[in-house]
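testing teh design pipeline on a random one, pls ignore if ur not involved
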């Protein structure tokens, strides 16, 4: 009987320990990332990025990884440089995956998996552009599509201008025109007080650049547009702070954005 009670207590203790560790793993991941961000070579690399010397940053991060192969934060930083700056998508994918292997419990997992998919698509696109004898008809269709997008944007701008003129000059503006001119309720709900689409966004709990892009652009794949617009305040895409104010750049309807 005494032995059974002891075994029960041991099992109960192990279960409680597992629950406590599971609850604190995400915090531990953030703590590890912050600690590794203070590595001398990682800090120097980030300083070089801010100075605009990204080649030097890549060299420093490679040195950091050679010295400490399990330095997860260095893998993530260099993956972003290979992806956005070097356009070396194979190396970017490798370092993204290496970070996930070293940080399997990271709260950035879903976002980094999106980056991996984006890097794969960019690599496939790059290969298709380099293939000899590419179908000229495809190129012509792409150009025609781009021209149509520009023409559609001009039509929309002209229509908006006419609606504004008519609402300013005629007291009996129709309800339909007013509905077109005023912001829609769902757009207001995306932002806090004093914020509006096309200007700023205040970071909320559990926000990531992907979820914010889904809110403001209805497309989570536009996260890089937010990242590049806020590089001065973001050392890396995953380091968002609750209450942080982000610039939300305008995107013309039908316009392209950087992948």
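output:
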């Amino acid at each position: 009987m005494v032995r059974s009670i002891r075994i029960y207590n041991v099992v109960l203790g192990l279960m409680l320990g597992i629950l406590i560790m599971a609850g604190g793993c995400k915090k531990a991941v953030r703590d590890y990332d912050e600690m590794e961000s203070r590595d001398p070579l990682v800090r120097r690399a980030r300083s070089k990025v801010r100075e605009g010397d990204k080649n030097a940053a890549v060299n420093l991060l490679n040195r950091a990884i050679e010295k400490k192969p399990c330095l997860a934060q260095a893998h993530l930083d260099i993956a972003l440089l290979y992806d956005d700056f070097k356009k070396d998508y194979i190396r970017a994918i490798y370092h993204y995956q290496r970070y996930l292997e070293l940080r399997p419990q990271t709260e950035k997992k879903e976002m980094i998996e999106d980056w991996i998919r984006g890097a794969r698509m960019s690599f496939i696109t790059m290969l298709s552009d380099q293939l000899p004898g590419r179908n000229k008809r495809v190129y012509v269709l792409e150009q025609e599509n781009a021209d149509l997008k520009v023409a559609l944007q001009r039509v929309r701008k002209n229509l908006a201008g006419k609606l504004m003129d008519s609402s300013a000059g005629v007291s009996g503006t129709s309800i339909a025109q007013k509905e077109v001119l005023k912001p829609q309720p769902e757009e207001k709900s995306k932002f806090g007080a004093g914020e509006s689409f096309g200007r700023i966004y205040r970071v909320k709990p559990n926000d990531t650049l992907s979820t914010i892009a889904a809110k403001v652009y209805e497309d989570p794949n536009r996260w890089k547009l937010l990242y590049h617009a806020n590089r001065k305040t973001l050392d890396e895409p995953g380091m968002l702070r609750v209450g942080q104010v982000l610039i939300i750049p305008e995107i013309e309807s039908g316009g392209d954005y950087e992948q």
